[in-house]
Amino acid sequence: MESLFPNLQEIVWQSTGSTTLRYIRLFLVPSVTSLKVNCYRAAHDMENGCMEALELLAPKQISLSRLGLTMWTYGQDFLNRLPAVLDNQPRLAWVSLPPYSATLQVVKALGRLPVLEEYLASFYEEYQNPVELLGRRVDWEKGAFPALRRLTLYTSLADASFVMAKPHQPRLQHLTLANRDAFHNSD
To answer: Is 0.90 surpassed by the pTM of this model?
Structure first.
């Protein structure tokens, strides 16, 4: 089946149901370099549909430079499958992932991306402490995140102290620390 949009470069897909998400496949053509998927309902079908679409990228010879995912909830299956999707997209230069997705496996997959220049990360749970993930468990000295220039962390400022502890990332030029505590406290 020939695509209606063979020169399509960017897809911004906003979906409130799993039935609409399955149609994204019609638009996945080799010319697509930017994909942003916003799923606004919490449902296993949405998570599965989103992951199935992402897993189609490599077989369809789609090489993304930008990937943004916004999902309200997702399960362990999504988190288990995400590193393989990232590994199959070596041209990714910009990545924004949903809150709670910064598991060790996902962060390590991001660290292996050779041209990743910008990463937007959200840390909201105790098990997602950025000091632990980015400060201690990522092998900065062994070449993790070799091209990272911009890092945005949505976390508590106390947790972001690893950034100032030692120069993990000498190529880093822009750092944005968004204090997540400000979003939770109205004082």
So the answer is: no
